[in-house]
Each structure stands twice: as structure tokens, then as C-alpha cells.
Amino acid sequence: MKLSINQVVKQSLAFFLLSGCLVFTTNAQETKKRKPIIDVHVHAMGGNPNGSPMCPWFLKDMPGGDPNQDPPAFMSTDCINPLQPARSDAEMDAAILRANEELNITMVVSGDAKVIHRWHKAAPDKIIPSLGISNADQMTVEQFRDSLSSGFYKVMGEVAPQYQGMSPSDMSLDEYFGVAEELGIPVGIHMGTGGNGTINITRPAYRASLGQPFLLEDMLARHPKLKIWVMHAGYPMADQMIALMGANAYVYVDLAGFIWSYPLEEIHDYLKRLLQAGFGKRILYGTDFMMWPELFETSIQVIESANYLSEEQKRDIFFNNAVRFFNLDASKFEK
Ligand SMILES: [Zn+2]
After folding, report:
1. 21 alpha carbon to ligand 1 midpoint, in Å?
2. CA 20 to 30 Å from 243, out of 24, 90, 131, 279?
3. Cα–ligand 1 centroid distance for 163 (angstroms)
4. Whole-prediction pTM value?
5. What mean pLDDT value characterizes the chain?
6. Ligand 1 center to residue 179 CA distance, Å?
7. How many CB atoms lie within 10 A of CB 16?
8. Helices 174-183 and 141-149, axial angle in degrees (round to 10)
9. What are the pLDDT digits (tens) for 296-323?
10. How many angstroms does the Cα of residue 22 sit away from the middle of ligand 1?
11. What separation in Å is there between the alpha carbon of 137 and the centre of ligand 1?
């Protein structure tokens, strides 16, 4: 390729500006700690030597399939730089601790109890343990009450009756919600989508219709002091989500999962819709982190790059709204 003098000058200038910017960014990061982030939706699990890489925003293409052929892939690995999974427990633990320290992320964590204890031990101020239950066979109401009363668990979640073909207002879960209400424990409930071909590939009992935010209303009416957040923001049912939040002042949403799986335009449209409807103070930041350490940066970037959000709105989503929802002490994050 032949370059004219003009092009050479332009390119050198671009390089100079770019390298100048990089130097500035590095220095700024070294001297200033990143502002705190609260990720309300992290799943605790060990590393997996057979874990699949993942291309963010892979649901931009859902071609479907045929019942007589192999089911379509759940995720895509067809991109230039797929995110790699943590392949051992040590790799996973190190990735979480790095996110706690370098990215200054405090996490609400549910899942494998052993892993939660391990992560909590490594960073007690940055890990908020959460106890999930999605059907009554998992533990009795008494066991659930004892676990919450021990003080280790501060949150109830992820509650995901939708995957079991059950409404969140199903009476079999009602006493558990009653315990959370009585103890003042906030609850995170999965409402929304479950991925490409969920029913065909992984969860035959799952029903898309059981993710409708309105299904929460009967349960909320039975527990007027319960504080819940709707995980995945009830995507894509914005109308129901907006009506539910309008009628129920203690309901918040999180952005987990769909912000790195659906097409970016779609994600921003949904987020804008919630903001435009007046709920900027009730949107919590979350990733639905499972196994790909770089997912933390990928997800943060979605919010940081949203040019329709003011700095104040970004800080609300990343931090302030969660401090308010979980009754945390903001001054403790300044250390
Ligand atoms: Zn979920």
C-alpha cells in the first residue's frame, strides 16, 4: 500500500493522539481507584475444563431448527475473540478476586454454597451471599428460615420458578417469601427469557409465558412488605414491567444476562424504555456472571458506552440504586 505525505502525517498524528490517550488512561487508573460497582447477579460455581467459550451478543442470530435435526447451538463461538471460560477452580477464584479488587466490584452471589463461602472468605467486604430456592423440594421452610437467620445470607435469590414451569405466585413458594418478608431479606426473581431454544435444548419445563412480570402481582399483594427485584428486567415485556413497577413501589429490576446476550440495539432500546418511563432510580446493574472472567468488563462497557446516559444515571445504575435497595452503607465503599 502506497501512502501520500498527507496520509503519513495524518496517521502519525492519529498514532500520537492515541498513544497520548493511552498513557493518560494508564496514569489515571494507577492514581485513582475505580468507582465502586455493585453487581447484583453473580452465580457461584467452580471452573470447568470443558466450559465453552462465548461470543457476547450471540442472540443477534436465532435461525431456529427442525425437530428432526440436531437442536440449534445454545451459544455461538463464531466471533473473532470469544470470551474464554475459567477452566479450574483456582482460575475462577482468582478471576473473582481480581474483579473485587481491580474493578472494585461488590457482588451479590448465589449458587454453590461451598464456592460462596470460599469467595466470601477471600473478600468478605465484596461478597454478599444469597440463598436461592426455586421449589419446595430443595429445602423445608424451617431449613430456609434457619439458613437466613444464621446471618451469613443477606439476600434470597436467584428464585427461578419459571424454569420449572411454575409462576412466582405459585402457593408452594409462598411461605418462603413470607420468611423473607418477615426477616427483611430482599428477593431476586428470574422473570424473562432463558436463551435460544431453551425448551428444546435444556429446560423442557420452561415456559416463556411464566416470565410475565404481572404474574408477580398476587404474590406481592400477599406480602406487602416484601422487597423484590425482577432479574433480567422481565425482558422483553417492558409494558408489563413498567405497569408493575408503577403499581408496586418496592419493585426494582436488574439488567443481568440480556445485556451481553441480545443484540446491542435491542438492549439499549429496552433500557431506554425503562428510563423514559421514569424508573432510572430502580434499575440495578448485574451480569448473570457464570464462567467467563472477561464478562465483567464486557458488561460494564455496555453501560459505560451508552451515550444517552448521563454520568449520574450511570452511577445510579452501577451503584446508588443498589445501595438504596439493599440498605447498604455507601461510606463503606469509599475506603
Ligand atoms: Zn436468571
Report:
1. 38
2. 131
3. 9
4. 0.89
5. 91
6. 22
7. 10
8. 20
9. 999 999 999 999 999 999 999 999 999 9
10. 37
11. 19
**Ligand 1: centre distance to CA 41 (Å):** 8
Residue 38 CA to ligand 1 center (angstroms) comes to 17
In the reported structure, the alpha carbon of residue 231 is separated from the centroid of ligand 1 by a whole-number distance in angstroms of 6
Asked if pLDDT for residue 69 goes beyond 70, the answer is yes
Instruction: Report, as an integer, the average pLDDT of 211-219.
Output: 98
Of 155, 107, 115, residue with least CA distance to 131: 155
CA 8 – ligand 1 centroid, Å: 51
**Rg of the chain, C-alpha, whole Å:** 21
From the CA of 95, how far away is ligand 1's center (Å)? 21
Residue type, 323: V
